[in-house]
Amino acid sequence: MRTETPVSVQLSDYKPYPFEIEQVNLRFDLDPDATKVRSELKVRRTGGAGDALVLDGEGLTLRSISIDGQALDASCYEQTDKALIIASVPDVFTLVTEVEIAPSQNTALSGLYMSGGRFCTQCESTGFRRITFYPDRPDVMSAFHVWMAADKATYPILLSNGTPGETGELDDGRHYAVWDDPHKKPSYLFALCAGDYDVYRDSFTTMNGDEIALAIHVDKGDADRAAWAMDSLKRSMTWDEQTYGRAYDLGVFNIVAVRDFNFGAMENKGLNVFNSAYVLADEATATDADFEAIESIVAHEYFHNWTGNRITCRDWFQLCLKEGLTVFRDQNFSADMRSRPVQRIKDVIRLRARQFAEDAGPLAHSVRPDHYGSIDNLYTATVYEKGAELIGMLRRMIGEELYRKGMDLYFERHDGQAVTIEDFYKCFEDVTGEDFTQFRLWYAQAGTPEVTVEENWKPETREIEITLKQKTPPTPGQPVKKPVPIPLEMALLDEEGNLAEWTTILEDEDVTLTMEMPDTVTEPPLVSVNRDFTAPIRLNRSLTREQRLAMVRMETDPFNQWDAVQTLVKDEILALSEGSQAEPDDALVTALAGAVEQAVDDPAFAALLTRLPEVGEMFLERQPADAVALNAARKKLQSALAAKLSGFSAETLGKPTPAPFDPGAEQAGIRALRTAMIVLLGVSPDAGAADTLRGLYNNATNMTERLAALRAYTVQKGGKANEALADFEQTWKDNPLVMDKWFALQATTGDAETIKTLAAHPAFDLRNPNRVRSVVAAFTMQNLAAFHAPDGSGYQAVEEIILKADKANPALGARLLTAFEQWRILEPQAKAAAEATLKRLQSAGLSSNAADIVARALG
Ligand SMILES: [Zn+2]
Questions:
Q1: What's the gap in Å between 495 CA and the centre of ligand 1?
Q2: Looking at the annotation, which residues are catalytic?
Q3: What are 716-725's pLDDT values in tens digits?
Q4: At what angle do helices 319-337 and 288-303 cross, to 10 degrees?
């Protein structure tokens, strides 16, 4: 097999489609090995008279083609491996094509495929062209009418977008159903599911008084485990009405849980398809993190109904228009459901770990790129997470009220359209009278801006002078950057609290602020910058350890207080990893333990304070990055903290866990602190820690604590916890989602040999993305010391698996390869081994998706 060279697509090449598709009528005769798809398109020319009709289509066997009832002669059209081209067509006509596809052979999980013996689809971004010939681009929006038939016994439930219509019986035990979607939509939002499911039903009355039938379709026997997803859905519907004034617009809302799925979930109009990991949960099988993820992903997909579906993207370069905005919406929903400061900290941890790393490496790209090699590779932390931060900055700069006015105008002006970032910002320009040209640079420039803060205290005049300077480092293809507007919430603090609070928008390269303090202030106040992480930037400050400790004590902003702790901890880990310090500083460990104990009334926050930065989060702090040394240093500090908190830990874990179980924020916070103590027991020097953990594992009444105890026990036993791991496997071998946790636990605590053992396990399945990720992604993203082992053993362990996964499923293969993005900043031995691996992969015949990632990584 030859490696395909990815062809670059340019934003500047955009041209509107020269035809309108007024109506789409689809007929599906479903069969796993030979599904027939008949498509009838009502077409009207909107472009030039000479324009040919070009339809996308991949892997389709064309059975017939006709225009206005007249079969087309083979000389009238051309079929390539990617398209169907009809050179000469009338201005208004009906095109009918019949194709055959084999869902059972579809391992890419894009288009129509089988999962667990059921039919399902995934069309974003370019899956619809694997179902039928169509202009498969988001700016072609049409009304879809679907007729589908299948064997009734095997596939009793037939679902598609919109509103259910007629159903009936056919010959040979088959039956049919009709679905009509009154809302015009692009093809990427098409969905079809057919199979035998258990259904969890409920209903919702909208603010307009409409009654909506809600249903979640799951595996047989799993219906009760969909209760939390349903509860999350109803809360999302209420929240979008109250916060954005948006109500649901169809009589039914269906969710289908699918085991084999490339993504988290998909927002198809009226028929969301979910990775079953983000639907099914109960206390025995799911952790609090699972419950939290389900709540936020259900909300995310639901919110897309307005930000994505009713108003969609003109082209895939505008992906952040729907994703950044919708992530921003789901983050705020979660913050309203739980603790706002804790949610903010978690969002920033994810942003820094994933997006900042992406921004600093060879795969860096802007939030709205101006070119791409492979569309599937655009679904990145930059588009999603940084895209969300940009909306957050917009809202801070113009205030809540104008933000809402701008959104209202956006919904009103662009409903039913496919639009651009410029269209979105025009709405905010119209409601504020301001110009967002400079702000939009955030969408065009890659890289994380660095803001340097310099302070100068003049005791004689009691003036503090604060100089802020911004600089964005060069990224691939963008050597020179312009200044961007950076909104910074700031404050001056002393022991009593806030002396002043304000927002500075740093628009130029630098700015100097001078503030005069009242007579009562004789000491230089502390400067608190980027409170609540108002802007997605890196801060450069040369503060002494004393100043940083004072920051931990005096900060009034919860985010900055947590961040002050993180900064101290990062410095300590660096010093330990570089050997400039042999043992953790006892004063620091005492201060850290003190902060945890003081925060006990907000247990979720206290738990976050015990969390030391992961090895990957340290990579950007000092380079070259030595994963092995950083991991050892981190463990040393963690172990010291465990010793210091041993009394507090015993007290926390000595209390009974909350019962009866409730997945809500209050109990989850208590369990988060208990779990944090369990994590520390895993590295505790205390001789009895292993026995304590074994006891906690045996007696746990929920998966959150059971899994944490098993993991910590495995760490405490140096990876040799075979008997406990076997017990867990025996208990859960029939539950694939729990078994994913079992695989991931070992992949994150073991070494290269562990990966080989797991890949040889009979339950390891290359065709199931969740299972592959639970081994490979868990290892490469959360076990960096073993993955970046200097002898290259970690790379070797995953190389073969990634190659095989890529052959079956290119989107999965490419995603796994992004783990190599930081290879250039590694210490010399690991760097050489990583480069050699990437070069071997490059010549091994990768899919075009994967080849795009490797080519960019090698640069
Ligand atoms: Zn989304």
A1: 44
A2: 301
A3: 999 899 999 9
A4: 130
